[in-house]
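Human: Not sure, check this?
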Amino acid sequence: MNEKNKFLSYNRRIKLGLISLAVGILIFIIAYLGMKQNIGLGKLNQPLLTWIVNHRNEDVTDIAKIITSIANPLEFASIIIVLVAIWVAIKKEVWRPLLFTGSIIVAAVTSTLLKTVFMDARPPHIDMIPTFEYDFSFPSGHTIGVAVFLLVIGYLIYSRQFSKKLFWVWISVAVFGTSIIAFSRLYLGYHWLTDIVASVGLALIVLSIVIFVDTFFIRKYKSKQYSSNTDR
C-alpha cells in the first residue's frame, strides 16, 4: 500500500504513545522541581521575567494581548464547540470528535486541579500587563489548552493519513502554535517559565493517553475494518 492515505500501524502508535508519555513526564518533573525547589529551570523564572519587563514595547504588547485572549478558556471553548459541530456534520463520525473533545476537557480539569494542589503564586502584579490575573500559576491553563488542541487534532489526522511529511507538518504546527501562546503568557507577566514548561509536559501526557485509548478502540472495535492497515 502507498505510504500516503493509510492508517498508522499498531506498533508505531504504541511507540509514539510511549515516547510522548516518557518525554511528557520528564518535562513535567523538571518544571515541577524548578517551581518547588527553585533549582534548574526554576532559577530562570525571575531573570527571564525581569528581562521581558525591561524589553516590552507597545506593538508587541498589543499582539500578545490578542493572542492570549484567543486562548481564553471561554473563547477557546466556543471555538472548540463550533469546530467539533462542523467536524461531526461534515465527516459524519463520532469517535474522533469525541476523543478530541475529551482530551480538551481532561487538559482543563488537570490544569485546574493542579493549580489548587500546588497553589503557586503568579508573578507580582507590578510585572503584569493589565488586566490582572489572580488565581494560581502552576501550570498554565492557556498553554496546556492550546498544546493539547494542536497535538491531539494533529495526531487524529496524522494517524489516519500516515506520511512522514504530514508528521513533520503536525509537529511544526504544534511547536509553533504552543510557542506563540506560551510567549504571550510570559510576555504579559501572567506566568513563570516553569508554568509554561509544565504545561507542555502535561500536554504530551494527555496526547499519550489519547493515543493509547484510540489504539485500543481501533484494535477492539474496528479490527475487521482496519486489519489490513493497523497490523503491519
Observations:
- Residues 10-223 form one domain.
- The chain has one domain: 10-223.
- Confidence is low (pLDDT under 50) at residues 1-5, 224-232.
